[in-house]
Amino acid sequence: MNKNLTIGSVMLVILLVFTFIGPLLPVIDNGISEEGARFTDNGIEVPPFPPSAEDPLGSDREGRDVLSLLVAGAKETFLVILAIVIIRFMISAILGVGSYYSKTIKGLLSVWSQLFSFLPPIFFVIFFAGLPFMVFSEHRQLWLIVVIAAVEVGRIGDVFKASMDYSAEKPFFEAGIVSGCSRWTLFKNYFWPELRLTLVTNFISDMGRTLFLIAQFAVIGVFLQSAFWSIRGGGVEAVNNSYIWPTLLMNIHQDIITAEWVVISTVGVITFTMITFYLLSSGIRNYYQDKYHQSN
Amino acid sequence: MGNRIVKMVIQWLAAFSILMLLLLLPREMEIESGPSGEFVAAHYEYSISAHAESIQQFLTPLLSGEGLGTDRYDRPFFDHAWEMMQRSLWLVVPAFFISIFFGIAKGVFDFQTRNRKRRIAGLHTTWLGLSVPDLVFIIVIQMILMYLNIKGIVTGLSLYGAGSPEAVVMNVIYLSIFPMFYLANVTFSALSDENGAEYIRTARAKGIPSFKLLYVHMLKNGLAKIFVHTNTVVLYLLSNLFVIEYLTQYRGAAYYFKEYITASSKIYDGQSLMLQTGAIASFTFFFTVLILLAGLISQVARGFLLPHERGGRS
Description:
The complex is a heterodimer.
Chain A: H1 3-21, E1 38-40, E2 43-45, H2 66-101, H3 103-116, H4 121-129, H5 132-135, H6 140-151, H7 153-168, H8 171-178, H9 183-219, E3 227-230, E4 236-239, H10 252-258, H11 260-292
Antiparallel strand pairs in A: 1-2, 3-4
Chain B: H1 2-23, E1 30-33, E2 39-43, H2 48-63, H3 77-112, H4 123-131, H5 134-151, H6 165-195, H7 198-205, H8 210-227, H9 230-247, H10 253-261, E3 266-267, H11 277-305, H12 307-310
Antiparallel strand pairs in B: 1-2
């Protein structure tokens, strides 16, 4: 009985229901309407409203229902982290697997990971986010996704390389060479089974890490996407216009004191997602280890 | 070891130069205005000559000894950056040692209790610490402190800003949460790997007490694997420093770096995206040098501590 995999799958189903069925529920306000003030028996209330029957998780400073915001942002959140992780893993796979076959690629991977070992991820991304061609680019979101993906390419590439080296050292690999397998067969039958496990488990756990990373960016006020608003008197301002979960953390300094429900629900849903990925990743690893009776 | 040190310095130089090249990208932009002066579009075009010119403009005062410029209070950027860096070092350095010390201790505890009932306090808490974002712990601690404050049990703490010792203590705790669990996990797997080794069996057969076996033999050999991760810990600490300093308004190096590097989100004219390159260059210098120093120290420490390395290889 694989407890991690079971619990992780159940949590994943909950997340999928939240994302895809959520918008159909009657409590969800898909228009994300803002509410200025509310008249109650005790007088006038102004946002942020605490949790009530109307807003199960309360509302933010603009009077928008937090639960609706979380449901509305779910799809985009998952798309963004999926895009980051897919780009990261494509580059890392080329570098990591390639470094077994080619010295040039091996050198490239080592330069890449050593270069980024001097650049803390958040430091580098905010450095990049302020570059002139980034601030007012229409493709800002795409740019930042690529940059966030690139920061960790070295680490994942090394993981792939380690998996290749691990398989190549095993006695069964020599058996493959002796029996005259072609390069492709060697890769498919001798490297791939181990590589696939590394790929799947790291892919899933990286989605959790990435979600947390973009949440950290939101805390310090760096957003992936922006729209342009005209300012009176000429000029233009870039403002965040997406409902992606981390944007709810942008007022965290004030919210933690006066509207803690915004922080708790956002961080709660992010934590739930991260634990889901973590459980799934270690559950899948256990599943394959049991299946092949590997003892690691 | 000398070779490795030279290699690290070269790597640092490369990383720093690339950051400087990016920083000194030309930043003028052309603003297209409509008939009544309203904003239509902003155009940015890169040219090598403009880039070269901006690098020259940066280097000329530096080479003639004028330094990196001054801020509006006439303080030299470099001194200001160093002062702020010292503030941040009060957080980073203790957090580094606390996370290493407690991380290894926790890893040893996890290893000792792995098959007993107490593993709930051992392995399971490490698992929780790794899968739950440290932001959760920080928020929970902050809310508990607020609750205690409201109830009048703990009052008079000033936890925001950079003036008070209690703010430093709390920030050090916030910073070291994740690296500690990370190192606990690394230590646990290093010890598990050593556990099966031949020399451990020999030592056990000779009747060495398990306490001595764990601390003298296994941990000492396992340290090699643990020290590989010090760079990751430093990177994580510096990365998370931005979040912590912003969250608690601790005005240190990360806070000011963020303030300086963030180009204006508003464009009025072609000069809107200009930055204080001198300030950013100083902060970048200190951040990367800190990583370099941490790398060098861990390199030297490995030379002294680890049995394999003392053998004379490299």
